[in-house]
Amino acid sequence: QVQLVESGGGLVQAGDSLRLSCAASGGTFSSYTMGWFRQAPGKAREFVARVERSGILMDYADSVKGRFAIARDNANNMVYLQMNRLKSEDTAVYYCAAKPHAEDVFNYWGQGTQVTVSS
Question: Which of 51, 44, 39 lies closest to 106 in space, CA to CA?
Fold first, then answer.
């Protein structure tokens, strides 16, 4: 079972950049599809981005496409979310998640890191 710990959140201004990190432990990292999700106050958790096991294929929500980039480092059990041109609507708690290869859903979640974008 994999454990996930996010870091890198904070308070930034609109237009700034921020990089989130997620450290994984306790599992075979390269066997998981990794993803980032977010939850804004009063809203449901939503998908942001995911990267498949090899790190070659990525997928993004339309709202972040062209601004955010997901990447993984299988040698160091890390996944990153580079966020550029941040907007106030990107304000949310960001969660790292892992999906085992044989399963259809993200089963493992970190505790989240707060990102606040001031306009």
Answer: 51
Q: Which two tokens stand for residue 114?
A: 């707060």
pLDDT in tens, 53-110: 999 999 999 999 999 999 999 999 999 999 999 999 999 999 999 999 888 899 999 9
20, pLDDT greater than 90: yes
Two tokens at 88? 């106030």
Q: Backbone dihedral region of 30: left (phi > 0), alpha (psi from -120 to 50 degrees) or beta? A: alpha
How many CB atoms are located within 10 Å of the residue 21 CB?
Answer: 16
What is the distance, to the nearest Å, from the Cα of residue 10 to the centroid of all Cα atoms in its chain?
A: 14
SS (H, E, C) 71-116: EEECCCCEEEEEECCCCHHHCEEEEEEEEECCCCCCCEECCCEEEE
